[in-house]
Amino acid sequence: MYRLSRWRRLIPVAIFGVFYLAAFNWLENRSGPYHIINSSIDSRIPFCELFIIPYFLWFFYIAAAVLYFAFFNNSKAEYTRLLLNLGIGMTAFLVVSYLYPNGLTLRPVEFPRDNIFTDMVRLLYRIDTPTNVLPSIHVYNSVAIFCAINSCRQLQRRPGIRAGAFVLTTLIVLSTMFLKQHSICDVMAGITFSFATYILLYRAFAKMSVSVTRSPKIKARPYPVFSRNSKETAN
Predict the structure, then answer these.
(1) The pTM is what?
(2) What's the average pLDDT block by block, 10 residues per block, for the chain (235 residues)?
(3) How far is it, in rounded angstroms, from Cα 180 to Cα 190?
């Protein structure tokens, strides 16, 4: 029964995952003009195919974190907070992409080198178009996962895991720009939005729950109980 209840925690993940992939696929295949959001700073960032490694590690990073909080972390509140954080960001991304179709023109026409990593980049370019990039979900989800790991009570005595999560998150954020997959504009939007939801879910709600827990309890005044003997004595 215990394992079954843990597996049930993944039901909302599966439901939202189907909805998100269907909506994202529709956005990727719709026709229409796109707003190019390139920045002049992007041209100063060199292309580096080695960053394809942390970029693809993002998928493992997200899945591993969700599975850890679902099956190995004792706090259901922390797991719920993580799902809310991811869900808010990914839903907002769909809304922004629908209302403000956006895209990039940063991808190199020719790669400066030819190796296995550039082959992986070519694969990435084929399966993912340079449209609907604001805010960067790669960035937003990575920061959200790090916030969950860094705030997890069970991992407070595991500084190595928290430091590793910080390094991997940083590399993933950098990889989006060095692979010319994202602009600094949508990267900064992803970071800013992720910290905003962190303050909302991990700071504001935490203070509210603490204040409610510590609020003085009003003791109910017991009603007087009269027995038959007491009434006879009063008479």
Answers:
(1) 0.83
(2) 71 94 92 88 94 96 95 90 95 95 92 93 92 94 95 92 96 96 94 92 66 45 44 44
(3) 16
